[in-house]
Amino acid sequence: MTILARVWELGRAAERAVRPNYPGVLVAAIFFAWSVSPSLLPRTWLFQGLVSGISAAIGYGVGCVLGWAVRKWVLPRLPEEAGVISQLLRPSDRVREISKVVIMVGVVVGAAVVLARSARWQRDLQVLMGMEPTTTPGYLRAELVAAGTLAFVIAVYRGLRWAVRRISGVLSIDFRIPRAIAFPGAVAVVAVLCVLLFQGVLVKVVFSVANSAFSLRNGHTSTDALPPTLPERSGSPDSLAPWNTLGSEGRWFVSYAPSAERIAKVTGKPAREPIRVYAGLESAKTPEDVANLVVAELDRTRAWERKVVVVVTTTGTGWVDSTTAAALEYLYGGDTAIAATQYSYLPSVLSFLSDKEKATESGKTVVHAVHERWAALPPEQRPKLLVYGESLGSQGSEGAFTGLDDIRSLVDGVLWVGPPNSNRIWSQIEQRRDPGTPEVLPVYADGLIVRFAGVADDLDKPARPWVTPRVAYLQHASDPIVWWSPDLLFTQPDWLKEPRGRDVSKSIRWWPIVTFWQISADLAHAQKVPSGHGHRYGTLVLDGWAAIAQPPEWNPELAQRIRLALDEDIDWEYAHK
């Protein structure tokens, strides 16, 4: 037997074992090609393989359905003498065998070609964001990951199909149920079992395990997070919120803050020790008790005598962005009080999927409790009351307000960073933006109350009055947390119809289903890009604070000194947290 014949026999044996559906293979190849087109963020070969594998599996399913429809409804109605069409749809055995080889070889080679092109797109995007570019040979590994992912999905489907046939056979033979009823019944049984397994047992187990795992992490404390001794911090000996109840993120928040001495050195003026109060999940029994504890801590630290009080709605684990907090403290010479709470053990992504209502409930409860205490003060003695939230935290603090009018009546300013696409107030403003302004950087009511920014200069646009209280949204065109939505499955968003944002590839396109998976994968890399892109807002938050609550002594020289100090703080935190 010649080598060619041996290869042919091995190929036939592999085909009999795998039993590929060739219309499915063709459509899977199309979906694969779509999936390697540019997305918002650069992707590693591993993630590209996963995304492409899932996309190819969806395409395979679509191709199988189309092939079945042709065999069932087209071929029976096609005359034998239909010429070229008949020959294409009813090829001879030899033509069929040759076509299979051509399809498989073409798909494998074609996938490598489009991945090579994708590697160039990835390099362009990496250069745009100041990242180290990938290599084409390394990126080609994505094809193997995609093939493995596709095979796994097909295997799961075939397992479910076997279960349907098995149950249908039992119903038909053992219970004498007509096949016309038994087969749909078997499909229904398997579908119900899958739904119950996923939504009931599986989801509960997954989130229960995750909650338990992250609750253990909640008890972890960085070696650089030490119990504070200053009375201006929660967790100190004078605090009503014990150190061991604050959670991992809360302990870091109250222990790592710029001192009055450092603030004075950076600003060149006398400074006060910043107040940071925090209540963890274990600090009180109910959300109401947590809110009351925060107010009590603000009372204890005499926070109402400061120039600014900020209510922070945290992300899932109780995380507060250190740069955002420090930026405000430098800005006001430490004459500030920042209050935050924890409402979940889970990271934001899991909190968003399992209990995002907790974020809204927490935001509403804490903001209203602090506002009630603040409103009881004589108007001339009230500090500025500001609200801040990032990512899921912005969704939580949005829940404290019914709309822009409510914001203006309750607080003195709001800064929201990287808001998820499902944010209620954000979505309403985006939908009602001024005609001709893009979704990635909208203008609403000529910028009278609320403004959007991807860089500092955007906060000055349009050149119209910006009345107080002010609302500012910081959002990058490349932030997948902002632009991810289930609607991406079948609807092209405005931001992919309009000119692309400043840090988004001009080659990005919308493809049904595929784009949804691409942006979903980008979520995992949202903070793994340089500052100024994705979900990394860096010192842009300083400009946000200055825009909504600028102190009288603010000037460009002071801004630059604070920005350099914040960069130093960021480097230190990455090295020690």
Give a verbal description of the structure.
The chain is an alpha/beta fold. 54% of the residues lie in helices and 7% in strands. A 7-stranded parallel β-sheet has the order 1-3-2-4-5-7-6, sandwiched between helices. Strand 2, helix 12 and strand 3 form a beta-alpha-beta unit. The relative contact order is 0.09. About 1% of the residues have low confidence.
Strand order of the largest sheet: 1-3-2-4-5-7-6
Helix segment tally: 21
Order of helices and strands: HHHHHHHHHHEHEHEHHEHHEHEEHHHH
Q: Please state the overall shape, judged from the principal axes of the Cα atoms.
A: elongated
Largest sheet: 7 strands, parallel
Secondary-structure class: alpha/beta
Overall strand count? 7
Q: Per DSSP, what share of the residues sits in E-state strands of 2 or more residues?
A: 5-15%
The separation of the N and C termini measures: 65 Å
How much helicity do the residues have? Answer: 40-55%
Pick out the low-confidence regions.
212-219
Please tell me how large the radius of gyration is. 29 Å
Mean model confidence by pLDDT: 88
Short description:
With 577 residues, this protein is an alpha/beta fold. It has helices spanning 3-18, 22-35, 45-74, 84-89, 93-128, 136-139, 142-173, 179-218, 247-255, 260-267, 287-300, 322-331, 348-354, 356-375, 392-398, 404-410, 424-431, 480-483, 514-523, 540-548, 556-576, and strands at residues 275-279, 308-313, 336-341, 384-390, 413-417, 450-453, 470-474. Helix 2 runs parallel beside helix 5, helix 12 (322-331) crosses helix 20 and helix 13 (348-354) packs across helix 14.
